[in-house]
Structures are given as C-alpha cells and as structure tokens.
Design a protein that fits this description.
The protein has one helix at 2-23; strands at residues 28-35, 41-48, 53-58, 63-66, 72-75, 84-90, 111-118, 124-125, 129-139, 151-156, 161-165, 167-169, 174-182, 185-190, 206-207, 219-220, 229-234, 240-245, 249-250, 263-271, 274-282. With 284 residues, it is mainly β. The protein folds into 3 domains: 2-48, no CATH class; 53-190, Chondroitinase Ac, Chain A, domain 3, CATH 2.60.220; 197-282, Immunoglobulin-like (Sandwich), CATH 2.60.40.3080. Strands 3, 6, 7, 8, 10, 11 and 14 form a 7-stranded antiparallel sheet that branches. A 5-stranded antiparallel sheet has the order 4-5-9-13-12, with no helix packed on it. Strands 15-21-20-17-18 form a 5-stranded mixed sheet, with no helix packed on it. A hairpin with a 4-residue loop joins strand 10 and strand 11. The protein is globular, with a radius of gyration of 25 Å.
Length: 284
C-alpha cells in the first residue's frame, strides 16, 4: 500500500511539473489518456504553435470568424451584400509597424492583426465596407507595463493610426470595438492621457461624396467612442445643413439625404465640455 501511495505521489508530481512547464510555452496544448488495460493508461500530449491565420466565407446572413486567442470579427445580418472570404492574420513583426500617433501613445502596438477579404474567386477586396456596424475583438498577452485599462483598438489608414475605440476585458485579455464599418489592419495601443481639440477633428479636409467610389466619400470625427456628442454642419451663409447625434460620420448629405453642392462647409462638434469648429470642402 505504501509503495503504491509513493508511486501515485510521483505520478501526480510529474503531471504537476509538466503542467507548470507547458504553461510557459508559446504552444497550444491538447492531451488525451489512452487506456491500455484496466490499470494502465498512456498520456498523449500534442504541442502546436498558436493559431496565426483563419478564413471563412461570410455573406448577407452574417457570420463570425475567430482565432483561438479570442481575436475575431462578428458581422451582422445585412452588413454585406455579397459573399466574401474573410481572413484574419496575426502580425508577428509588430516592431516593424509604425508607432502610435494622434490619439495613440507613441509606442509599438501591443498586438496587431490584418483583417482582410477576397471574393470567392480569390481576388483581394480592398477595405471591405459594411452596411452595418460590426464587432472586432483583439487579444493581447501578459506583459510588463501594459496599461490595460487604456488599451484601445486602432485601424491603419495611409498615414495614421485611427481610433476605433473598445472596451477592455482584463479577465479574458481582449478589447472589443462594436462600431467597426470596414476591415483593415487593426492594432492595440494605449490611448493618450487627455485629448486636445485636434484629436477629435476629422483627418480628411476634402470629400467627394458624389463619386461613391469608396475614396474620400465621407469624413469621420475621431476619438468619440463611448461619448455623447452632436455634430452640426452649416453652409457658409450659416444655414444648418445636417445634424448628427452620436454618429461620427458625415457622408456629404443634408438632412433630406441629398448630396450637398460643392463648396465649403462649417462643422461644429459638441462633446463633453468642448465646442470644436472647423471647415470641410465638398467637391463633386
């Protein structure tokens, strides 16, 4: 009896040590116990690298795609008008990505992923746009000095990292943004402490809404995720053209949905205790 007890203790100690050791490895672990006879089992442990890529066909009914670390996208019904192949790829060499700017702290991304799409023939679809807001989730790991409560999701345009927003789930090590309108390269950065008026202004100063080609069709005000705000658009005579409540995007239309005439327009953004004004040019 004593011998069996010592043998059992050794086995349990070995399993505990193996579990602790494996937990520090950058692998996904799966194990099974294969019975040989009534008293003997063989433990089979499989180590494999973390999942870096996934793809799935998603269409008008909507759908979801996720990596094992929790990174993924959920596209609601009606957000797409045709079937496409959606993909997610983890970016490993984040040290080669541009540092944070504008609302992001000027540091390397905490994590980064490429969200892309192609048609069912394999042709790449650039900047897939959604008709309805979709949800993007980015995962992050443990690390010294990570300001978890300030982590936000940013997407990359040609020049800048632009804020999508996000809610931090420290328990599951994920950040969720629920107002995403297109696929892009997404990354996690800590947001800056205290935003100036310029941090809310749109990047684009000229839009061409009549072309409807997906290029410069609209302007988007920045860093408004989770805030209550109002945007008013006026022509140069002071006539109000459009009012937007908790919607950061102006598509160059008036309150009736008609595209406005070419010219210069004035915007007034009211958010928290700030009133921010500027001009936007519309060219047809």
């Amino acid at each position: 009896m004593a011998r069996e007890r010592r043998r059992l203790i050794k086995i349990l100690a070995s399993i505990l040590f193996a579990g602790i050791f494996i937990s520090f490895l950058p692998f996904t672990v799966s194990s099974i116990f294969i019975p040989v006879d009534k008293e003997t089992f063989i433990a089979s442990v499989t180590l494999r690298p973390p999942q870096d890529y996934a793809e799935k066909n998603i269409g008008p009914p909507g759908g979801s795609l996720y990596l094992e670390d929790g990174t993924g996208v959920t596209i609601p019904e009606g957000a797409l008008t045709k079937w496409v192949s959606v993909s997610i790829k983890r970016i490993k060499d984040i040290q080669n990505l541009p540092l944070g700017n504008r609302a992001a702290m000027p540091v390397e991304p905490i994590s980064a992923y490429e969200f892309g799409a192609s048609d069912l023939d394999g042709k790449k679809v650039n900047s897939l746009m959604f008709n309805k807001a979709s949800t993007v989730i980015l995962a992050y790991g443990d690390g010294d000095g990570i300001l978890e409560e300030r982590l936000r999701i940013f997407w990359r345009d040609l020049l800048d990292w632009r804020l999508s927003g996000g809610e931090v789930d420290k328990k599951n090590k994920i950040v969720t943004a629920k107002n995403v309108m297109h696929l892009s390269k997404f990354a996690l950065f800590p947001i800056r402490f205290g935003l100036s008026a310029d941090a809310y202004r749109p990047v684009r100063k000229i839009i061409t809404p009549a072309y409807k080609d997906g290029i410069n069709d609209e302007i988007e005000f920045e860093n408004l995720d989770g805030k209550q705000f109002t945007i008013r658009i006026y022509d140069i005579t002071g006539k109000r053209i459009k009012i937007l409540r908790n919607n950061p995007v102006w598509d160059g239309t008036d309150d009736d949905g008609d595209i406005v005439e070419s010219g210069v327009y004035i915007y007034q953004l009211k958010v928290e205790d700030k009133v921010i004004s500027g001009v936007i040019a519309v060219a047809k």
